[in-house]
Input
Amino acid sequence: MRSIQFFLFVFCLCLISCQDTQPKFHKSHYPKKAEAPFSDLVEVGNTLYLAGQIGMDHNSRTLVSGGVEAETKQAILNLKEVLELHNSSLDQVVKCTVILSDINDFAEFNEVYVQYFPNKPARTTFAASGLARNAKIEIECIAVKK
Output
């Protein structure tokens, strides 16, 4: 009986240790952005940690025009693109962190945000000065694979 228990114990340990928990670091598929000193996404098991995205058009390498609403839309589309490249989607996002350059833009940002996240992931929003490229918004998120 003890040998069966021992065998089951060892078998369970093997199953647990075989789970893929080593981080996988994924650079951007955009050549210029791939040179950045950070990963677009880090994958640990079934969880995806995305770097912050600003409202940049990655083809032109410029911020979109139109203020915080346009930048919010583009930042979310950038997140969506990264998620889809890694077998996930916006509806798989479980947590967002949003950084605004001006907290007075909160209402305008939120009008756009709710269009893309009807499932209402957990979220933290705050303001900070000096976002990259003078962006009005940056969004990072955590998601799971489909």
About this structure: Residues 67-85 form the longest helix (19 residues). The domain at 21-144 is CATH 3.30.1330.40 (60s Ribosomal Protein L30; Chain: A;). The first strand starts at residue 24 and ends at 26. Strands lie at 24-26, 41-44, 47-54, 56-57, 62-63, 93-100, 122-127, 137-144.
